[in-house]
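Re-running the complex after MR caught last week's input typo. The corrected sequence lines follow. Everything else is unchanged.
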Amino acid sequence: MAKKKRSRSESSSGTPAAVLTPRDKKTINTLITLADEIVEAADKKKDPHLDIPARTLTNVKYNNTARIIEMGKGTNRRQLFNLTQAKAYMQTLLVAEGTKRLLDQGKTTSIRGLYYLLKHTIEGTKEETFDDQADCDPIIEDLEVTLTTLREELHVYASNRGAMVGPLTLTDSGDEIDCSRMGSGGYSIPSIVEADVIQFGSHRAEFILHVEKDTVWRRFNEDKFWRKHNCILIHGGGQPPRGVRRLLSRMHNELTYRGQKLPVFCLLDNDPWGYYIYSVLKQGSINLAYESKRMAIPDARYIGLRSKDFEECKLTPSVQIRLNEQDIKRAKQIAGYPWFAKKKEWQREIKQMLDNGFKLEVESLISKDISYVTETYVPERLKAQDWLGD
Amino acid sequence: MAKKKRSRSESSSGTPAAVLTPRDKKTINTLITLADEIVEAADKKKDPHLDIPARTLTNVKYNNTARIIEMGKGTNRRQLFNLTQAKAYMQTLLVAEGTKRLLDQGKTTSIRGLYYLLKHTIEGTKEETFDDQADCDPIIEDLEVTLTTLREELHVYASNRGAMVGPLTLTDSGDEIDCSRMGSGGYSIPSIVEADVIQFGSHRAEFILHVEKDTVWRRFNEDKFWRKHNCILIHGGGQPPRGVRRLLSRMHNELTYRGQKLPVFCLLDNDPWGYYIYSVLKQGSINLAYESKRMAIPDARYIGLRSKDFEECKLTPSVQIRLNEQDIKRAKQIAGYPWFAKKKEWQREIKQMLDNGFKLEVESLISKDISYVTETYVPERLKAQDWLGD
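Corrected-run output:
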């Protein structure tokens, strides 16, 4: 496999080759470079190997300047001529070859699709290339970190979840989308939202409101909150998938209001899970630390629910949900995350939840009034600038 | 609470009352009738009670003419002056009152929202109206069957999942949607798709292709299958939620091609779960039998994967997934469903899967070629009219 300059790739199956985007060309080149290094090693009679950045807690650190979680420089060597590493080595090359094929054909697939694309019995043996999906998934992540490329760039996508409405137009795969006229379901956020797929048009938004669940999103959409408050309203169906995180990050960084980056407010549950979602949105996740740079939003603000809200909003005790052992353990873990550990207000917030002994869902505000959250809670907090996280 | 003719409802909270749709008015009237009957009983010094249709297997039957699952006439009486029934009785009225409030305000909520709306400590006691969500959900279903109304008509919605593309325009909540220009994510199907929310515009579709998973849907969308074959492409993210089922049923019954109802083809996995999804789409589900009339599509066709496909498509043994005990049990159960029990071709289909000893996912076709399913499998089956289920 030699490096070539070209804008059309050759298809092995004889079907017309795909037109490659500049991003695709770049990704293909990193894959070719990987292959070339192996050929080179073989030519020099050296043992072929791959140095794969370690995706472990010890190889992850918080960058105080960038305010995101980053991977360290630790790597693990994966060798072909090593009985315990040979299979993983070959699997890694197999995944690399499969993603190159996808890129060449201009097609994308899911991790399930890639697994089926590569799964076969190795000729002359009874050995399967992959025994099951769980065998393939970490190899995909290995390749991502090794090439410092996103799986979306390798044409492998995650599930798409999440929707968006607001005063924003965009182009998605050539279709012009007016996010203020998308019906009750909103614009469905795809998994791949890079600039060659989605281009932003004009917008009149003053901020972005991210809510945790589609049911809460629906309340805000039904009450036309985004019209009254000129904002983009988005949800990620729980823990936001990569597409939603990347889109949030792109909108925050590429769209402006009064010359500033478009602020992002997160309306999440007052529980360890809500804190965790905020933490991932803000500084990235430990498991996918290599993606933080493109996905984390260090300036994201947490606008609720808060541990003080049971008293401040005069909620009925009926809405309290007792913390279980797992919750308490998770809360303490999160309080120890580098960014949170340094913020007095967050230490207070988490401590107060533990003292309360209960958690609160955003939906608990319905006990006040079905539209309390859209008509009172969020508008008042915005006006009072009462949020956490700057 | 007396019956009144009105098109605006009074709001208890002093906020402007909502404009009611004809459907809302009808639903409110059934709720008022329910309440009136209780007042009447009380006036006559009779014990108030509700007769709730039984949602049990024994009260469900297959209607050979309509070819759908229907509820029988069995009911369970729920009385106020009965120690074991009093709480459920009051919960039922509480849910009825809550949904009336939603209708009056012109607002909708999730089952979680309704739970929070109604959850409180009963004055002067330590008793909660509902201990948890699981306490509230069956009461919502009770009310649905008692009033023969859908939860969506009571302004309570399920989660929205599922997307659609194709040569079809529609109006959703006043927004005109062109389903052929919705970007890579497609039109996001809301939970409530009744005629006052969604009105169909023009279409050029010849059939509807329903696929099980969003990942498969994406393959079809990326390959522009719906353009080449003039069809509406839809998925329900696994077991299709109520919104998707109802929309499929509406499109099948309200849109035509060459004077016939728009045919529905289902591309599902060759496993008991795929068979079950087909069965629910076709004849309704046992648990929600009272909804069959509005959701089931007796003419829906099963276009794959089939038990014969391992050989017919010459697939590699690597893609076989061994049936487990649960699969075998489920397959035998489904073979016994009234409709399936009478169809020789389905008995053969299920028997062959059991004989094979393995199941096949639609994605297994990727082992042939990434676009085999869109370019070969489905087109060939359509041309040969090789499907199950007429």
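None of the earlier attempt is carried over here. The first strand of chain B starts at residue 49 and ends at 53. Residues 224 and 374 of chain B are 9 Å apart (CA to CA).
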